[in-house]
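Help needed: design a sequence for this.
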């Protein structure tokens, strides 16, 4: 066999192996408005998860009006800056790391505090026919009232894949929006979230203030800093590591493929107060 032919075979093998490696899609959020700009909107990780749209929105100055539709359920994650959200004439004070779900309320306004810029994600999840049926069985207060929480006020839980040093919180329990749950993970290095797999759900991570970790998924790995959002490849064996004296602090967002997949949440053990 000639050296040229051998080289050609090795090249094909290496390219094939590279093609089989699942990459970790990531986008870094724009946290700086351009001079004289009052608003910035961009769809991030577009078309990564069927039926889910994620937008980064940054505003300063005048309030923006949101007119929502009934085909989706919406989640607002406020990550930097302060402001006010007004829903049905009721005001909700916004500080960094706050979640708001309007539920059946379709009109709201969002305003940044004076001389501040408010940065947040707007997440839309398209309702399926099954979702509409499932909503009828949800607690009435969960689907009609505005859900509003500071992350630090949310219920804590533990999980076998995390160390005792980790603080985990459920910021959006299931049974508010069909097939969705969200939470935070916070610790100081050296620490890690152990390798695990979940083929029953799609997952996004949002890096919060000072987050500086490495995310692994099968053979791929990527640096995951603050104010970035990534998509864990479906079904991959993934983990998160943080080095000594660095911070791990991110939001996980679970988008279940069906309601049966929500059984995964039973691995979260509620912490008694």
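Sure. Designed sequence:
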């Amino acid at each position: 066999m000639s050296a040229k032919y051998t080289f050609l075979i090795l090249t094909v093998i290496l390219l094939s192996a590279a093609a089989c490696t699942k990459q970790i899609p990531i986008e870094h959020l724009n946290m700086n408005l351009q001079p004289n700009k009052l608003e910035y909107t961009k769809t991030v990780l577009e078309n990564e998860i069927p039926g889910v749209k994620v937008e980064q929105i940054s505003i300063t100055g005048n309030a923006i009006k949101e007119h929502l539709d009934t085909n989706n359920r919406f989640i607002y994650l406020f990550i930097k800056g302060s402001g006010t959200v007004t829903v049905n004439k009721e005001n909700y004070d916004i500080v960094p790391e706050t979640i708001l779900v309007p539920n059946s309320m379709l009109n709201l306004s969002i305003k940044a505090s004076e001389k501040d810029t408010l940065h947040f994600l707007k997440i839309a999840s398209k309702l399926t026919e099954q979702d509409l049926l499932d909503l009828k069985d949800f607690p009435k207060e969960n689907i009609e009232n505005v859900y509003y929480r500071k992350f630090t006020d949310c219920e804590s839980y533990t999980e076998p894949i995390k160390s005792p040093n980790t603080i985990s919180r459920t910021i959006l329990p299931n049974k508010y929006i069909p097939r969705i749950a969200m939470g935070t993970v916070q610790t100081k290095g050296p620490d890690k979230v152990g390798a695990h797999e979940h083929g029953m759900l799609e997952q996004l991570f949002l890096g919060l203030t000072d987050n500086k970790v490495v995310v692994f998924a099968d053979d791929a790995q990527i640096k995951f800093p603050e104010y970035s959002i990534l998509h864990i490849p479906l079904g991959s064996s993934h983990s998160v590591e943080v080095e000594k004296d660095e911070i791990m602090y991110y939001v996980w967002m679970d988008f279940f493929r069906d309601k049966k997949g929500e059984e995964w949440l039973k691995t979260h053990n509620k912490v008694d107060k």
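Residues 10-20 have pLDDT under 50 and may be disordered.
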